Amino acid sequence: xxxxxxxxxxxxxxxxxxxxxxxxxxxxxxxxxxxxxxxxxxxxxxxxxxxxxxxxxxxxxxxxxxxxxxxxxxxxxxxxxxxxxxxxxxxxxxxxxxxxxxxxxxxxxxxxxxxxxxxxxxxxxxxxxxxxxxxxxxxxxxxxxxxxxxxxxxxxxxxxxxxxxxxxxxxxxxxxxxxxxxxxxxxxxxxxxxxxxxxxxxxxxxxxxxxxxxxxxxxxxxxxxxxxxxxxxxxxxxxxxxxxxxxxxxxxxxxxxxxxxxxxxxxxxxxxxxxxxxxxxxxxxxxxxxxxxxxxxxxxxxxxxxxxxxxxxxxxxxxxxxxxxxxxxxxxxxxxxxxxxxxxxxxxxxxxxxxxxxxxxx
Length: 362
Description:
Elements: E1 62-71, E2 77-83, E3 86-91, E4 94-99, H1 111-115, E5 119-123, E6 131-134, E7 143-148, E8 151-156, H2 170-182, E9 188-192, H3 198-206, E10 209-214, H4 217-229, E11 237-241, H5 244-254, E12 260-263, E13 268-270, E14 276-278, H6 279-292, E15 300-305, H7 312-322, E16 329-338, E17 350-360
Parallel strand pairs: 1-16, 4-5, 9-10, 9-12, 10-11, 12-15
Antiparallel strand pairs: 2-3, 3-4, 5-6, 7-8, 13-14, 15-17, 16-17
């Protein structure tokens, strides 16, 4: 599937499950939506998968709703300001302006602050469109080093407006890091639609054994560059370039299991061999298979959904049905990033980025 607008210029190939947003993560919606969608190429041919949904019995897990997971930024990132359909962000040494359809309000900071930036994304800002970067001060290189949660990685100016990391995910990565460090045993983490590998590196640095799956060869290559930059070459990470749905089906047949599964699928996607992914058609089966490959002592199953025109309740109820009889609780809601001002310490408005649902055993 063409992955989330993710990689700079990485036209992802991700299958019914493996790819990323509209180029990497599917560029975010140009029009305001309740929650963002990662979009890849629309497709009308469904993926042929014979595996039926399991018949689930038992009580549904307890529920915690709505849950708003908020980040004020971390490491080399914070959201400075937003408004007029744009956002002003700090990524390491660079201040960047990108389109943001959900920023319906007026900016808080004066116009001259927005003009003194290092890079501005311009051109086609449609979900599936590509654009270009303008550098008001001086031409910048394609990549630059960044750090989040103690992990080093490369930012990149991609043609789909993203820079190689989705900082709203910091809240999930922090949660995962805490679980891995507190487990008292090496946890096995599966990162589906893993993109540039920041989450995989955070998990590995915390002590987990990681399997990273993405259908884009370019994304896997970028992830390996990040691994080297983070000096984690010897960390136990398997980099798998494959359609995500095919991979988890095979893991189910083999009886393999994982303690934590992160899954961040696009709305639409196409795999390297023509496989087609449509979120509303294939998500129930994907979660069903993920349930089957959770270990008996699983710590969590995390789903993030971008750009889907639906309430978080749609994925919340699906997660509760999928986890019938498993106990624990399902917590669902939105991921938001709060403006932090020029210094990164002045809380402002909250910008919604995506929907999520997370099952935890207690």
